[in-house]
Amino acid sequence: GDDIDLFHLKNIVTHVQVKTGTVDNGWNLKELKASRNSTQDKKPKPYSSVLHKSLELDKDTNLVSKFMIVTDRVVKGPLSFLEIPLENRAAKTGRDQLVKSINSALGKN
């Protein structure tokens, strides 16, 4: 597959999703939460989205998980906050909106 796990000191792992050419108009939450697989009867398979598959990697309670998408496509909406380098994010707005949007996409309100 195209997924990479980077293990760091202090029990930190970064789960990296590499996505190229899979969306036409850029990445947004709608694309991230869209089902990527179908059932045998051609219905969208629940929990098969990029968002769900990434978050299901966060199972080890002994590790701190971080998530990353590497893509050649533009990033839109609340996801654009993720383009800000980590060391600069504290001074920027947008994190709360991103968290709220992801929780909503996962059905957590």
TrEMBL record:
Among Pfam families, the record links this protein to:
Cap4_nuclease (PF14130)
**Where does the signal peptide begin and end?**
none
What region holds the CD-NTase associated protein 4-like DNA endonuclease domain? 2-106
Q: Which InterPro entries match?
A: Cap4-like_endonuclease_dom
| Record GO terms (molecular function) | nuclease activity
Using the record for this protein, list the coiled-coil segments as residue ranges, or answer none. none
The protein's name in its UniProt record: DUF4297 domain-containing protein
**Source organism of the structure:** Vibrio anguillarum
